[in-house]
């Protein structure tokens, strides 16, 4: 067998992910009674399943390099996850997120469904009759190991432990007006996100000759826009469950559907 040869390929592939569902700012007080929780209980548990799809998000290079042009990056991210929430006094939610995410970048980087997680809290800061205001703060992370890179139509298989490390912190301030069985809402959002390759060089195989190993140099990126907004609506039912649909825009373009059951 011929010895492997090394080459260097300056792909400078950045990557991007999207923020997670925000949810209704009035969620802590939307349902007073659960399947097993009496109305006067000071603590309750909710479990939700969500499907989140970021269909477009723009990122920019974190650092400018003298020998490289700025990279235009557009990302798609789909996430399936479960959310467990502990509610206190119908005023405060503390929650954890466990799921899997799949990433696609510029028709060049592809991953399979891989583990993602997060945690956060939501607090009611004002409530008067049917009108509510709330603050949501969350952290979300996902490590994505790509299966291959595409360059000039050729697939370069990743053969080492290269991965992208992503984390984000999102702050959201929103308001909600409840009308009978529907509760529409709106948020202003601020997103801090960063993703960096680990390590900065991926070892890939030249597709036309597997004896040739190629160093693919990557660089970290950050969100192009930090400020954004979200709009959504929650449908309430007497069966202690809610169904919400949410759309996010400006700092990312995404849509989310989630079903929440209160115990």
| Cα radius of gyration in angstroms | 21 Å
Total DSSP helices? 1
Mean pLDDT equals: 83
* Low-confidence runs: 1-18
Order of helices and strands: EHEEEEEEEEEEEEEEEEE
Assembly category: single chain
Q: If you had to describe this structure to a student in words, what would you say it looks like?
A:
The chain has 263 residues and is an all-beta fold. 2% of the residues lie in helices and 66% in strands. It contains 1 helix and 18 strands. It has an 18-stranded mixed sheet that branches. A hairpin with a 3-residue loop joins strand 17 and strand 18. The longest helix has 4 residues, at 27-30. It is elongated, with a radius of gyration of 21 Å.
Short description:
This protein is an all-beta fold. The protein has one helix at 27-30; strands spanning 5-13, 43-56, 58-61, 73-88, 92-105, 109-110, 114-128, 131-144, 148-151, 154-158, 163-177, 182-198, 201-205, 212-218, 221-223, 227-236, 241-249, 253-262.
Features of the shown structure:
18-stranded mixed beta sheet; mainly beta; 263 residues; 18 strands; disordered N terminus; single chain; 2% helix
Q: Strands, helices and their partners?
A:
Blueprint lengths: L4 E9 L13 H4 L12 E14 L1 E4 L11 E16 L3 E14 L3 E2 L3 E15 L2 E14 L3 E4 L2 E5 L4 E15 L4 E17 L2 E5 L6 E7 L2 E3 L3 E10 L4 E9 L3 E10 L1
Parallel strand pairs: 1-14
Antiparallel strand pairs: 2-4, 2-18, 3-4, 3-15, 4-5, 5-6, 5-7, 6-9, 7-8, 8-11, 9-10, 10-13, 11-12, 12-15, 12-16, 13-14, 16-17, 17-18
């Amino acid at each position: 067998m011929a010895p492997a040869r090394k080459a260097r390929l300056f792909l400078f592939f950045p990557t991007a992910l999207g923020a997670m569902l925000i949810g209704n700012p009035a969620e802590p007080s939307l349902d007073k009674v659960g399947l097993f929780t009496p109305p006067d209980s000071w603590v309750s548990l909710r479990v939700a399943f969500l499907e989140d799809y970021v269909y477009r998000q723009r990122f920019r290079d974190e650092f400018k390099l003298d020998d490289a042009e700025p990279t235009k990056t557009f990302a798609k991210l789909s996430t399936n996850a479960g959310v467990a929430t502990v509610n206190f006094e119908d005023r405060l939610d503390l929650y954890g997120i466990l799921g899997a995410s799949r990433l696609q970048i510029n028709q060049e980087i592809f991953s399979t469904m891989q583990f993602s997680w997060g945690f956060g809290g939501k607090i009611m800061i004002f409530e008067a009759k049917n009108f509510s205001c709330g603050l949501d703060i969350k952290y979300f992370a996902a490590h994505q190991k790509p299966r291959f890179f595409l360059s000039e139509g050729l697939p370069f298989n990743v053969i080492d432990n290269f991965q992208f490390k992503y984390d984000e912190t999102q702050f959201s301030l929103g308001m909600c007006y409840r009308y009978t069985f529907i509760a529409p809402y709106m948020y202003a959002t601020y997103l801090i996100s960063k993703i960096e390759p680990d390590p900065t060089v991926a070892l890939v195989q030249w597709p036309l000759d597997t004896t040739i190993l190629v160093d693919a140099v990557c660089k970290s990126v950050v969100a192009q826009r930090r400020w954004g907004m979200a709009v959504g609506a929650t449908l309430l039912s007497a069966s202690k469950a809610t169904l919400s649909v949410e759309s996010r825009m400006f700092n990312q373009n995404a849509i989310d559907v989630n079903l929440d059951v209160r115990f």
